[in-house]
Design a protein that fits this description.
The chain is an alpha+beta fold. The protein has three domains: 150 residues, Orthogonal Bundle (Globin-like); 108 residues, no CATH class; 82 residues, Arc Repressor Mutant, subunit A (Orthogonal Bundle), CATH 1.10.10. The protein has a five-stranded mixed β-sheet with strand order 2-3-1-4-5. Helix 10 links the parallel strand 4 and strand 5. The protein is rod-shaped, with a radius of gyration of 37 Å. The N terminus is likely disordered.
Length: 394
């Protein structure tokens, strides 16, 4: 890092007795600076009263002592004190502020308030000692250049710590999600949540949605992203875990997703949210990639149950529809549609006719065809059960 005076900055020639007076007044000046910061920057007030108040005093003493050394060195360049230690102190302060969760404006405000008190004190000494206007101007130029370097170092430290903390937090949250998906013990999950600085909700709800619409539901900072390699979903889809959208919060949440074609799993305790993920992912697979609108898995349970074993369902359909195998495809499709509606409407022909938008006489004709094909099997409870399961879901 550079040293002061920097190229282009005028040489400051303050007399030794003025510099000595400045150095002698440092302890009282630092007290006034800290008190002013406490009064005017409330976010730092509690920190200043904590056990590391001596650290603040020591840092201020180092920064101001180094500035006085620079002022001495401005007339004796060969004795200039390196700025690295000073800037490192400001850098560490910036990192500490980031770790404490305070915005960067807080440290900048502290520097401004401190600089005001400092300039008020030292400029008064310069005027008292009869230093001319040009030298006071050069002193101000050097002073604020020094402050700019310190502020920049603090902001750089803040930015680096924030970036590092953000990456650490994301890694810890990813670890938490993976533990949830593997069904880890509650104690381990709670430790992982604490490590991730994640405030545990009452419930988590899994949502599968297109990747390009993923940002629609991540406004809550507690929302968890499921890593792409942790679960199998169709290309272009993402899975997120949303906090506390169960119960009365579910209808408005579903409404908010109207334009996303999302699949929404059940709201479960956050420790058991892997079941919500599994159900949402299975529902998305059964639904298919071209379906539109929001799918609430709470209203999709029959399809999930029937579709749990696709191969077994296909075999069952082949078996129960075997009596229709020899018919033309168009006739067979109409009879399958009629049989499904007849089963779901408990044999009420008028309801079947209304469901299929055909006349009751057409339904009577189709039912005769079905009885001819199935015979007494349409009276067998076991066959009725198998037909219902096989045809309940299109």
């Amino acid at each position: 890092m550079s040293e002061l005076p920097t190229p282009g900055t005028r040489i400051v020639g303050l007399p030794p007795h003025t510099l000595d007076a400045m150095r002698a007044g440092l302890p009282d000046l630092i007290d006034r600076m800290v008190l002013a910061v406490i009064a005017e920057v409330p976010a730092l007030a509690a920190a200043a009263e904590e056990s590391w108040r001596p650290v603040i005093d020591a840092s201020a003493d180092q920064l101001l002592g180094a500035l006085l050394d620079q002022l001495h060195a401005s007339t004796e360049p060969l004795t200039a004190v390196p700025m690295q230690e000073v800037l490192d102190t400001a850098y560490r302060f910036g990192r500490r502020e980031a770790r404490n969760g305070r915005p960067t404006e807080v440290q900048l405000a502290a520097y401004r308030v401190g600089a005001r008190e400092l300039w008020r004190d030292w400029s008064s000494l310069a005027v008292r000692d009869g230093i001319d206007r040009d030298q006071i101007s050069a002193f101000a130029e050097m002073f604020f250049a020094y402050l700019d370097q310190i502020s920049a170092a603090g902001v750089a430290g803040y930015a680096e710590e924030q970036a590092k903390s953000g990456l650490d937090r994301e890694r810890q949250r990813e670890r938490l999600v993976r533990l949830v998906l593997t069904g880890a013990p509650t104690e381990e999950l709670e430790r992982a949540a604490a490590d991730a600085n994640w405030l545990a909700p009452r419930t988590l709800t899994a949502v599968v949605l297109p990747s390009q619409r993923h940002t629609a539901i991540v406004a809550d900072p507690r929302t968890l992203n499921v890593p792409e390699d942790a679960i199998e979903v169709a290309a272009g889809q993402r899975v997120v875990l949303v906090c506390d959208v169960g119960g009365t919060a579910r209808p408005p949440f579903l409404a908010s997703l109207a334009a996303t074609n999302a699949v929404v799993g059940p709201a479960l305790s956050w420790q058991t949210a892997r079941s919500s993920v599994r159900r949402a992912v299975r529902a998305a697979a059964l639904r298919g990639p071209d379906a539109e609108g929001v799918l609430d898995t709470d209203e999709f349970l029959p399809e999930l149950v029937v579709g749990a074993d696709a191969e077994a369902l296909a075999d069952l359909r082949d078996r129960v529809l075997a009596p229709l195998a020899g018919m033309p495809n168009r006739t067979r499709d109409r009879l399958v549609e009629t049989l499904r509606s007849w089963l779901l409407h408990h044999g009420h022909r008028d309801d079947v006719a209304a469901d299929l938008f055909v006349s009751p006489s057409t339904i009577r004709y189709r039912l005769r065809q079905l009885r001819d094909a199935y015979g007494e099997r349409l009276q067998d409870p076991r066959w009725i059960a198998e037909l219902t399961v096989a045809l309940a879901v299109r």
